[in-house]
Amino acid sequence: MAVRLGILGLGTVGTGAVQLLQDTVGRHPLLDEIEIYRVGVRSLDKPRAVQFASGVVTTDLDAIVTDPEIDIVVEVIGGLEPARSLMLKAIQAGKHVVTANKAAIARFGDEIFTNANLARVYVMLEAAVGGGIPVIQPLKQSLSVNRIHTVTGIVNGTTNYILTRMTQEGSSFNDVLADAQRLGYAEADPTADVDGLDAADKIAILASLAFGGRIKLEDIYCEGIRSVSKTDIAYAEKLGFVIKLLAIAVQTPRRGVSTTLSVRVHPTLVPQTHPLASINNVNNAILVEGEPIGQVMFFGPGAGAGATASAVVSDILNIVAALKTEKLSTQEHQSKISLINPLLACRHQDYCQIVPNSELVTKFYTRFLTKDQPGVIGKLGTCFGNHRVSLESIVQTGFQAELAEIVVVTHDVKEGDFRQALREIETLAAVDSIPSLLRVL
Ligand SMILES: NC(=O)C1=CN([C@@H]2O[C@H](COP(=O)(O)OP(=O)(O)OC[C@H]3O[C@@H](n4cnc5c(N)ncnc54)[C@H](OP(=O)(O)O)[C@@H]3O)[C@@H](O)[C@H]2O)C=CC1
Ligand SMILES: N[C@@H](CC=O)C(=O)O
Ligand code: NA
């Protein structure tokens, strides 16, 4: 008997998943044991790229998640509500869930996974981070014996696409954003992409899997790419860097506290020789560092219909395989399984402790506009020295109107010390403004 799907949503990802499920030749044979039983949408009148038998498509999503004929609910409507309630109803009705919804999982993961574990159903989310790149399952399974200490990722396809085109073509931010929307990379509201919120949701999920505890979104420092200017992209290049929106989760030793993490999202100057520097366009990459494995990097398309569908359907297949194994052992048809496979499930209960950004140790790039007077560079150096900020380089790079442009790159410094130095610098009569401040990897 086929395993029956109720798919919620037939947009970019839903359509990609259906296309894959309707074209199974040359793919895994288990795909032929899956039936698309119901598809839930908002509007029945929209033209669709895929066809179904009559009665399959409906606007009654509640009926799908409670339908006793359905084994697996695939949530690809996105957003917080009704996605959260529909996933919870499906779980309560004993259905397994596959979702691409990082926003809902990052906020309601606690509630969703607790309910799923009680109901003995799986909630699978490979598509939620890195689109088509397998990264969730490797963290749950293949890397789970490692002690992971750092996860650094380019995890938002839209912003990586925008920054790549701004860097390579000097294109304007708004033109490139419109292209990312047209190509189906951006969220329904692209603010989540551009302001780093989507990347924050994703690093919360990755950090939770890598470090074995839940993460509160409000503990994540989050800065998007709106402030990244063509000027800084050009200076970064001259200094041997590229600017990328990085999501970083790193274990930080802290006196008296066993394990603390720094979890943050911000535009970052990445050395041109670093493996993440060459990740361009809609591609994502996640660099995982741990013991004993060392460094592992996952790379591939982070958004788009086909890539994301690959992850969604592979999650469906994992559940189908688990159901089939269970059926073979019990010889009876049931969608509910008696034992949860701990390498497929999410099991975390406790929250990780996150360090405030003031304690973060990192390098900074800062651009100053100052009066063109002798001794300004010396004054900046003195202020930094007063606050224990040691400098890697300080150069006058040119002029903007009457003002001199000075670019500073620090060594590793405590962010709190660096901010204090900037406050002192702002009081200097020779300093006009500080147009940019970016962290350096
Ligand atoms: N696009 C991408 O590349 C990726 C997306 N994701 C995630 O996948 C999910 C889906 O994204 P995407 O496919 O791009 O989104 P789209 O906006 O393209 O599609 C959303 C679909 O859900 C339906 N829908 C939305 N709200 C409701 C509702 N209240 N009731 C019924 N149907 C509803 C829409 O119906 P209708 O068609 O009738 O309007 C549409 O079919 C999101 O969580 C997103 O973050 C994850 C990785 C990559
Ligand atoms: N909007 C997201 C889609 C995938 O998660 C992105 O651009 O990465
Ligand atoms: Na993925």
From TrEMBL:
Does this UniProt record's set of keywords contain Transferase? no
* Binding-site residues, L-homoserine: 187
Q: What is its EC number?
A: 1.1.1.3
- One of the GO BP terms on file: methionine biosynthetic process
Judged by the first EC level, this protein's enzyme class is oxidoreductase
Which residues constitute the catalytic centre?
202
The record's section on SUPFAM superfamilies has: ACT-like, Glyceraldehyde-3-phosphate dehydrogenase-like, C-terminal domain, NAD(P)-binding Rossmann-fold domains
Q: In which pathway does it act?
A: Amino-acid biosynthesis; L-methionine biosynthesis via de novo pathway; L-homoserine from L-aspartate: step 3/3; Amino-acid biosynthesis; L-threonine biosynthesis; L-threonine from L-aspartate: step 3/5
Catalytic reactions on record: L-homoserine + NADP(+) = L-aspartate 4-semialdehyde + NADPH + H(+)
Required cofactor(s):
a metal cation
Lineage top rank: taxon: Bacteria
Where does the record place the ACT domain?
365-439
Similarity comment: family membership: Belongs to the homoserine dehydrogenase family.
This chain's protein is named Homoserine dehydrogenase
Organism (species): Iningainema tapete BLCC-T55
